[in-house]
Amino acid sequence: MMKENKDNSARDGKRQPKSPLMRVISLLGSLKFALLIVVLIAVACIIGTLLPQGSQVAKYLQQNPDAKSRMDMLTAMGLTNVFSASWFTMLLVLLSASLSVCTSRRVSAAVKAKKGLVRVRITGSVITHVSMLLILGGGVIRGVWGQKGYMELREGQMATFFMSEKGDVQQIPFGVHLLDFDIEVYEKPGDTPAMPDSDSLGQVIAQWPEKELAAAIPVVLGAEYIWPSELEVSKADDSYHIRILQYLPDFAVDVDTREVISRSAEPKNPAVLVSVVSASGNTNDHWLFANFPDFDMHANSDSNTVSTPFKLVFERGSGASREGPPPQVKDYKSHLQILENDKVVLEKIIEVNAPLSYMGYSFYQASYDPNDLTYTLLQVVKDPGVPVVYAGFALMILGLTIVFYLCPWLKARGEKTGEKS
Q1: Labelling 227: which of 19, 200, 206, 380 has CA 20 to 30 A away?
Q2: 320-351: per-residue pLDDT in tens?
């Protein structure tokens, strides 16, 4: 009778419902739950790879303006900033909790294990589980405390903040100063660029039909030519001094200051400033345009300025030619200085895949403006979870080495020792 009562009590004890805490622990320790979280994280990673993320959204909308409503909906759902979204961080937390339960069970098994080889194998498994926890923990730390954005600088400028991918201004505890920005290009893929000779800028053609005179004057800045020559002067009433004063690859006039400028280094609208001085001292300074040979523009308002009896035409040369594909960019570099209390504490030239790191912040060369060669765009990243992730990878290598190399070696050694004995 007493035995029957004990059996009934034991059955009643088994039927007692689990506490909420035990139910949560049981769920976290379930293999099905862990696999579900892993699948959800994998799907999130696929979405983050296929959809534009962060600053890529603005570029995508520039190319596809009709997609604005769709992108707004995806942004509201948190799918355009997946890897820093709170729901993605929560998935990492759940997977970390599941691994923590599994790790605690492994630790308990290692403590209870009596045989040396079994204990070593379980210990290796525990280390591997802990390494995965550290890697996931590093991801959670990055999602919660990490920062990422962009900093725009021009030569000579300094900034103490950057714009995050969410559009917020993030302050940094030091100053970043752009000392210099440089671009290296190839004229042709695989060729080393060479500086063009002055003659390759082109030539100025002087034409005097009435006197049956013509001459080709190479564009060499600062050079002066006397035309007609001594052999030809008998055909003309006077000789002229022709001087090349200036060359601009992309001629433009500033609408505010009315100053002549070059919009870029690309020879889109090449022009030369030519000064013509007669023997009597009359001057005529005017711009000649390769793209508009029938048009010229006077550059001075001197009272001695008179028109010339001949015509000048500017023909671009090989150095100003746009035939073929544009030069390919070999590399672009930013010479940065880190300042604290107006003192330079660090200086480095950064380029793609060679960032500058200081106080947990890393500055990567991100982009540039081909029409403004003094401008650079830097990507700013602060990831406090990186050391934790590196520690996790180190422990993972140790744990896998124990499980797949040390344990088989100990087992083989034990079998050989048993055979000899």
Answers
A1: 200
A2: 544 445 556 778 899 999 999 989 999 999 98
Strands 361-369 and 356-358 turn out to be antiparallel
Contacts (Cβ under 8 Å, ≥6 apart) of 70: none
Residue 60 in contact with residue 52, Cβ under 8 Å?
yes
φ and ψ at residue 378, rounded to 5 degrees: -110, 140
Tokens at 299, concatenated: 């550059």
Kindly tell me if the per-residue pLDDT of 257 is higher than 80.
Answer: no
Cβ neighbours of residue 23 closer than 8 Å, sequence gap 6 or more: none
C-alpha distance across the termini of the chain, in Å: 54
Residue 314 backbone zone (phi > 0: left; psi -120 to 50: alpha; other: beta): beta
336 φ/ψ angles, rounded to the nearest 5 degrees: -105, 150
By CB neighbour count within 10 A (0-12 exposed, 13-18 middle, 19+ buried), where does 182 fall? Answer: middle
Q: Supply the mean pLDDT for the chain.
A: 80
Q: How many helices (H) and strands (E) does the chain have?
A: 9, 18
User: How many other CB atoms are found less than 10 A from the CB of residue 90?
Assistant: 13
Tell me: the pLDDT tens digits for 192-247? 444 444 446 788 888 888 777 888 888 888 778 888 876 665 555 677 888 888 88
- Quickly count: other Cβ atoms within 10 Å of residue 27's Cβ: 14
CA distances (Å), origin 131, targets 31, 96, 100, 126, 165: 19, 11, 11, 9, 30
Return the closest-CA partner of residue 227 out of 217, 213, 241: 241
Q: Find tokens 């280094």 and name the residue.
A: 265
